[in-house]
Amino acid sequence: MEFKNAIHALNGSTRLDAPVYMVIPRAGCSGCISTAEKYMIEYLEDNKKQSKIKFILTDFDSQKVLLARFGSIARNQHVIIDPQNIFRANQSLKSIYPTIFLFKNDELVKVTEISPEKDGQAELNMFLKTVTGI
């Protein structure tokens, strides 16, 4: 599976540490990206929820700018920085929208996005309620 291959390229393992991964590109639909970034910040500030979602930041020009923009959030253990833009370079994973990968028992069950056509945030919240009990 392409997602697991990209994770392996980032951290050397195909092991999934969370049931949800949200890939947030730097460039694309700015409103959608802003919504995803806000969600990420709020989610990571809520210490009770931090084990369910990993956030992958990709397609950025400079890690220094990324760190300046997000501060300590970018250093959170639930944030994965993609310095080689592996997710952006992979045509099957590439999107101008924040993309959400939902897993159950290490198997991909759904891919959605935060876009004008899809309410990925609502789908994510529903998934968390039904699958993980949050």
Q: Could you name the CATH class?
A: Alpha Beta
- Alpha-beta content class: alpha/beta
**Strand and helix order:** HEHEHEHEEH
Strand order of the largest sheet: 3-2-1-4-5
SS element count, helices: 5
Structurally, how many domains make up the residues?
1
CATH architecture: 3-Layer(aba) Sandwich
Radius of gyration: 14 Å
Q: Outline the low-pLDDT stretches.
A: none
Q: What coarse outline follows from CA principal-axis ratios?
A: globular
The CATH topology: Glutaredoxin
Q: How many extended strands?
A: 5
Report how far the terminal alpha carbons are from each other.
27 Å
Helical proportion? 25-40%
Biggest beta sheet attributes: 5 strands, mixed
Provide mean pLDDT, rounded.
86
Strand content: 15-25%
Fold and architecture overview:
38% of the residues lie in helices and 21% in strands. It has helices at 2-11, 30-45, 63-70, 86-89, 120-132; strands spanning 20-25, 53-58, 79-81, 99-104, 107-113. It starts with a helix and ends with a helix. The radius of gyration is 14 Å and the shape is globular. The protein has a single domain (2-132), classed as Glutaredoxin (3-Layer(aba) Sandwich). With 134 residues, the protein is an alpha/beta fold.
